[in-house]
Predict the structure.
Amino acid sequence: MKILVTGGAGFIGSHTVDMLVDRGYDVRIVDNLLGQVHQSKKPSYLNKKAEFIQGDISDSNSWEKWLHDIDAIIHLASMTGIAQSMYEPNEYCKNNIQGTANFYELLVKNKAIRKKIKKIIIASSKTLYGEGAYKCKNHGLIFPELRPVEQLEKKDWELKCPHCNNVMDAVPIPEEKPAQCLSVYALTKYSTERLALMYGQTLDIPTVAFRYFSVFGPRQSLSNPYTGVCSIFLSRIKNGQQPVIFEDGNQLRDFIYIEDIARVNLLALEKSKKTKVYNVGLGKGVSIKDAALTIGEVLGIKTDPVITNEFRYGDTRNDISDNSKIEKDLGFKPQYSFREGIEKLVEWGKEIKAQDKFEQAEQERKKLLG
């Protein structure tokens, strides 16, 4: 099979390409080498056995030449950044939504290409959920609204039951939780997912949309302030700065190591026969504070994170993946613990130059808020 991987020079894409090549697939990469991520250069780790085309998915005229001999698509190309998306909505919608719509419009119009495509895998995101899932001891499973500003101003961080006002416990989020989409980025990923599932059914092409949780690991840019929090923390520490953490640092995130994500992409390519959406996470929550401390421990550097006790409106408190469906349907279980993944990230990061741009991103965010 010949596989097209959009965003194949990126963090998730490049690891997926490596696994595809190792399994004997013929791979074509399309990537625009976004300056924010790649400094507009082909990365040194790019697999030399894969065909590389520099191109932009928002260019509707290019999709036909990319797809004419392709058997399956792994669509990972995306602008990624929750905060940045709020002040660059046009760029995020153009790339993430329009870029995907271009691809499906071609499939609708070109029957020959459409009939050749046997499988589509799409990168969605856990960010579409908004706030996580919770359990109240009196009222059971609750999908709450965002915490009100009045509560956050009192530095009262935990989620309260809307019926009895008791503090609730965070539980894994099932795929059935309605989308909340608290950022432009989340909205674009939800739109991408819905386009894929809609056309998967309409065009009778088996399609899998993966709601990735907090992916981390080698090749995640250490100079992009809109990337994952583990890479941001590692960049800060490598530059002699302490990680900055909002609220009290006890908010939970589900961190999943990159090789598990690449492996699940191949699993869907080879085993899935239906159009479905799945969560993909570790299935466990790690506090943001513990994430920062673990990175410092692995580096052998004493880390004293700056806990601001400030909030950013739109931030969620907890998210943990419910992996039960993907385990049942595809047999997927993560192979790496959080600590094992951090050890690999830190080892890779020793040879990588890191530009700490956290303060720059914060100034942009505050400017947006006026």
Remarks:
- Residues 9 and 46 are 6 Å apart (CA to CA).
- The two ends are 52 Å apart (CA to CA).
- Residues 89-109 form the longest helix (21 residues).
- The chain has two domains: 2-132+173-369, 133-172.
